[in-house]
Amino acid sequence: MTDPITGLSSMATRKVLADLTEAYHRSTGGRVAFRSMGGVDAARLIRSGAAIDLVVLASGVMERLESEGHLLPGSRTTFVRSGIAVAVPVGAPHPDLCDEAALRRAMLEGGTLCYSTGPSGDHLRQLWERWGLADEMARRAIQAPPGTSVASLLARGEASLGFQQLSEMIGVEGVQIVGPLPAEAQSITVFEAGISILSADRASCDAFIGFATGPDADDIITRNGLSVQDREDRNAASTSI
């Protein structure tokens, strides 16, 4: 049995990649082993020269890694889109999220807020700055450490209102998802897949990326709270040419 190719991802795509690697193995016999951690730590590990074949991170990080020479030029491929959701501990009242004003009230009227270190956390801080609430939220909000999910802190009762990528909160016991951020306050993160410049098996990497961004992956992706809209738009454009 050949050794699996290895991959590194952030926590937002941990569950979907676990499901996709299992489906890929059943379909092709190919083996892929992903390791997931906070996105900042993942990028740091790649920059340190870790022997990784595949990388799945937010598009902005992937662009920088490619420009720094850590990714095979031209290997970056749009994988999934991910929106931010709001969650509460099981049994807690659900705040109104009908529009941006309601979201702002929910944050002000709630107890301890929890947010992540990833792109969703960056977006929350930008919202607070825009609303003039940066100082207030700095006193009342806690940031989950890298690699720790916001949902886990909600489930332990350490926060009453949590904000993170929907894919990281689906299926967590002790947590109820209220819904996505309202459209005018939402931020969509695009995650890409790419090949490390250090990979010795680029053909296998290409094969897995092709599977993970192909139609056989659609159901797996959507049930993990992610979207394939970018890929659908690109495919539609290519078939119309």
TrEMBL record:
Molecular-function annotations in GO: molybdate ion binding
Superkingdom of source: Bacteria
InterPro entries: ModA/WtpA
GO process terms (BP): molybdate ion transport
Alphabetized Pfam families for the sequence: SBP_bac_11
Record field: transmembrane: none
Name of this protein: Extracellular solute-binding protein family 1
Gene it is expressed from: modA
